[in-house]
Amino acid sequence: MESSNLTLVTEFILLGLSRQSEIQMYLFVLFLMIYLMILLGNLLIVLLIVVNTFLHTPMYFFLTNLSIIEVCYTSCVFPQMLVHFFAERKSISYFCCVIQVYSFLSFGIAECYILSVMAYDRYIAIRDPLRYSVTMNRGVCVRLVTGSWMGGLVISLVFTVVTFQLSFCQDNVINHFLCEMPALFRLSCTDTSRAEFITQILCIFTLLCPVIFITFSYTHIINIVLQIRSAQGRRKAFSTCSSHLLVVILFFASVMSLYMRPKSMSSPEKDKIISVFYVVFTPTLNPLIYSLRNKEVKIALRKLLGKTRDI
User: Fold this and answer.
1) CA terminus-to-terminus distance, the chain
2) pTM for the whole structure
């Protein structure tokens, strides 16, 4: 700390999405409905995969983990945000802010790696379908998923330590709806250049490397698919990848635009809009994308609805 007269903060004040009191009720209803959609949509996908044995394949094993991550990821933010819509003082303690940053980043980074694993899975399935079940056996799948979760837990710890080694003095008002690293860097009363440099290096491993790997996988997938003579075969091959590719584009485009853009292009209001996109809209759309664009999931859903009617 540069001066002994500076007082370190013990809590932060989150300004939230809007400071207009007259629309807080409408925002509460809107985001409560969105949160329930995220929970129900992702948990329904998990249920469908668990109860239908024909979905017990590597692709759906990875999709189960992605859905669980989405539930945990959004649950780091939504409950607090919903409470703050009615709170006169939108405060969060320093300790809770640390926990939110760590847990939010853990699940976010794990999602980056799971999406990369899913791209690899699709590449193996299309490149060598006859040996797919041997190559992507249960042991390999478990190790890939475990590595994704552990990567999230470990790397997010480094992010969190780097962030909270900074000093936060008298100014404790965050123009955001959650404790997020760019907003905290902006609030710090000490030099953040070292922390920002370390963050950019870590972002290479958590964002840029997965994007490069996914791009590499899909480049090979497209080359393989274009060599298929049958138009129906090409459509079938592309259909198995289209849902995942759409999710990848939505998620990585928004996250990278926040964490890897130049500092000169950032602003609190822009950051909030980008955060809303990948915290709110992407997890909401994912279950819809995988259910509406996936024939096997739709079959499993019809079976489940049929059993429910019989009961």
Assistant:
1) 66
2) 0.89
